[in-house]
Amino acid sequence: MKDKELTKRKLINAVGEVVKAEGFQNLKISKVSKYANVDRKLIYRYFGSLNYLVEVYILENDYWMIFADKMKQMLTEKQFSGSEDLITEILQNQFRFFVSQKEMQRLILWELSMDNPLMRSIHNTRESLGQEFLNMSDSHFQNGKVNFRAIAALLVGGIYYTILHTVYNGGTFAGIDLNTENGKEELLKAIGQIVHWAYQEV
To answer: What does the DSSP 8-state code read for residue 15?
Structure first.
């Protein structure tokens, strides 16, 4: 049993190594087994298919998947005074996570450019988790003039696009350099300001 779990871990980690080196589009059973240094037949034995192995990897590494349990714990322990503070923290953490995770940057690029059932499934799971944190804001904005879900959509999408654009097309966006700590701090501050303005408008 111990050898089985060790081999499964090697295969999951190998997915990340292939992605980091060559991108999601180059994921193949032969490459994953080579990076893991195990027989390719074990992918089928332990995961059934390459798609399921990739899904396991993504579920372990995508920000919204990772943060779901942590978010529930934060709510249970009442670590924040209100939904504004918690939502700001969640969005700022998304920025910090995504700007530092090359594999997840490649994942989003792949998801946007491929018509793939696996990617649709991952997107739907991520969307479901996102609904949980948006539910926290609904009572505050109910019958108000601010559609916070629309604002959140722009913030989440903006975080992805700004980071992907600067990583793959140049170091600056709107004159802000994400290669510098000051540039990152300016965007983190802007996220907090936008959420605060929305909450003040109600």
So the answer is: H
